[in-house]
Please model this.
Amino acid sequence: MNEALFRLEGIEAGYGDGTAVLRGLDLEVQRGDRLAITGPNGAGKSTLPHVMVGLIRPRTGSVWAFGRRRNGERAFHEVRLRAGLLFQQADDQLFSPTVFDDVAFGPFNQGKDATEVRDLVLATLDDLGLAGYEGRLTHMLSGGEKRLVSLATVLAMQPDVLLLDEPLAGLDQPTEARLVEILQRRPQALVVVTHDPALVSALDLQRLEMRDGRLEPT
Model:
């Protein structure tokens, strides 16, 4: 049997006010899985990928990633280099002055040398239809351009799994179609938080619905 990319067991997690939004949640993600996390606002959908990469620590339960139980910042640092998290808001993802710097940040943190990083950045931007954007100022980009550059920051790391939080949020129809086409041809496992049934269908995702802090197949 293949080793799971992620295995979450009995996760209870929430935010600083003490309210738990995940309540005994279990999830396993294998290579090749394509999962949609659906459910109403406030159900905890966006909390889940943050728990998976250690940005939110569970109060109880276990997070296993890439064959190891993960505890502490150092252990989750490796997870973030292998699991690409796309935030719901692009401005939460982009923090460097230029597109090149933002896209290069992850590969540099993976220990790649400058030549390899440059090649990865340019190839990733070209693949997303953003050739020539490397010198652009990130704060001057349109909303759709920021979304695509955010995805480039994730894909340039060549992750084992993509964790995407509402990837089509705020996009116009042409940019939506472009991003869907990009995701359709990605080889990685996908875990997609979404309200959009058309996206679930287009990416052939298996739906899991968040109910009372747990995931149930639909």
User: Anything to note?
Assistant: The first strand starts at residue 6 and ends at 14. The helical segments are 47-52, 73-82, 99-109, 114-127, 143-155, 173-184, 197-202. The chain has one domain: 6-217.
